[in-house]
Q: What sequence folds into this?
């Protein structure tokens, strides 16, 4: 089965991991700090590593002070963790609809959803294309809400030359194997606000701090926990893989750009198919290639592509359709653009090691199904 996404591991990655395994530090060591410094160069802001993209979101919401009684406005066109990380801290999640063209959250819908209880506006850079953070920040000014960017798809992307980690108050990343580069499992949170970086570092380390003590007159062993946190620390072994992978991020981006351009060319004008678009001012690291299959044929096309050995995917089920949100009173029909997008979306294989021949097979199979 040709997957829709997969990692690219080379000899340098293996060498970096083996070296970490042979060192004195398997976790909480120098490779973590080194990886965070490498990430900052790409993200455009200081980064705190964590165990995965889901814990990155949980840590970001915790650093933002999200708690019971707060509201978090976010998109339904995302993986459930974008919403569940806020809900697990007691916040009420408000879903704002998406833009039809980009599948990113619609700033006008966000504005309509804001209240005096809005603590965070959480956007998602769908398929690697950055959300319109400039508009979102302007919208959020009236409520004082923090802006969070779920950039699980978009590390390496730029908006008007600015890296995605510098566009929001908090930005979360995922380094899962299908993402733009991988640490196996892993994630990070970037922030342009130093006080949030400090809170993130404490939260991902079980709340432990080693300065600004309430009781400062103890010995060198002393540490304190002023607020609860969790053990979300990324090990040195995985950080070593991450630093090695980051050296190829530019090559990964260029190959994804080439493949996306080939899809654009090879699928142009195919009846029953709508191709993805992006704002002209963005330079995305294209994580997904999401087409829209028209005329109610998405499920048929999905099943027939899978039968042909091509691992297409659907990204995503509207979050509030999941039983956990249905049980909280959320109902279908809340975000019509997102539901229309879901009914037609199909992600075609896209990853750095995808060959032109395999991509041609994807295109020929898809064209054949749509033409039958």
A:
């Amino acid at each position: 089965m040709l997957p829709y996404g997969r990692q690219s591991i080379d000899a340098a990655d293996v060498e970096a991991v083996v070296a970490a395994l042979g060192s004195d530090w398997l976790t909480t060591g120098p490779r973590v700090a080194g990886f965070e410094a490498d990430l900052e160069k790409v993200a455009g802001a200081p980064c705190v590593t964590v165990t995965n993209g889901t814990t990155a979101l949980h840590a970001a919401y915790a650093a933002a002070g999200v708690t019971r009684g707060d509201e978090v406005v976010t998109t339904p066109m995302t993986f459930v963790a974008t919403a569940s990380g806020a809900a697990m801290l007691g916040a009420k999640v408000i879903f704002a609809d998406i833009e039809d063209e980009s599948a990113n959250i619609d700033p006008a819908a966000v504005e309509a959803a804001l209240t005096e209880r809005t603590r965070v506006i959480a956007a998602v850079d769908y398929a690697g294309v950055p959300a319109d953070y400039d508009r979102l920040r302007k919208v959020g000014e009236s409520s004082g809400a923090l802006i969070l960017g779920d950039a699980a798809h978009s590390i390496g992307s730029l908006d008007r030359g600015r890296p995605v980690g510098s566009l929001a108050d908090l930005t979360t990343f995922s380094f899962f194997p299908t993402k733009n580069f991988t640490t196996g499992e892993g994630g990070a949170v970037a922030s342009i606000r130093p006080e949030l970086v400090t809170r993130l570092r404490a939260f991902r380390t079980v709340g432990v701090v080693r300065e600004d003590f309430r009781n400062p007159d103890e010995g060198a062993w002393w540490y304190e926990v002023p607020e609860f946190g969790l053990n979300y620390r990324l090990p040195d072994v995985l950080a070593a893989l991450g630093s090695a992978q980051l050296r190829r991020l530019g090559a990964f981006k260029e190959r994804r750009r080439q493949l996306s351009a080939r899809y654009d060319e090879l699928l142009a004008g195919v009846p029953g198919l709508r191709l993805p678009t992006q704002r002209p001012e963005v330079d995305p690291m294209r994580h997904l290639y999401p087409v829209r299959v028209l005329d109610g044929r998405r499920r048929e096309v999905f099943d027939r592509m899978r039968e042909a050995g091509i691992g297409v995917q659907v990204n995503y089920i509207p979050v509030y359709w999941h039983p956990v949100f249905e049980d909280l009173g959320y109902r279908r029909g809340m975000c019509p653009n997102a539901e229309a997008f879901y009914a037609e979306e199909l992600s075609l294989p896209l990853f750095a090691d995808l060959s032109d021949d395999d991509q041609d097979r994807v295109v020929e199979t898809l064209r054949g199904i749509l033409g039958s």
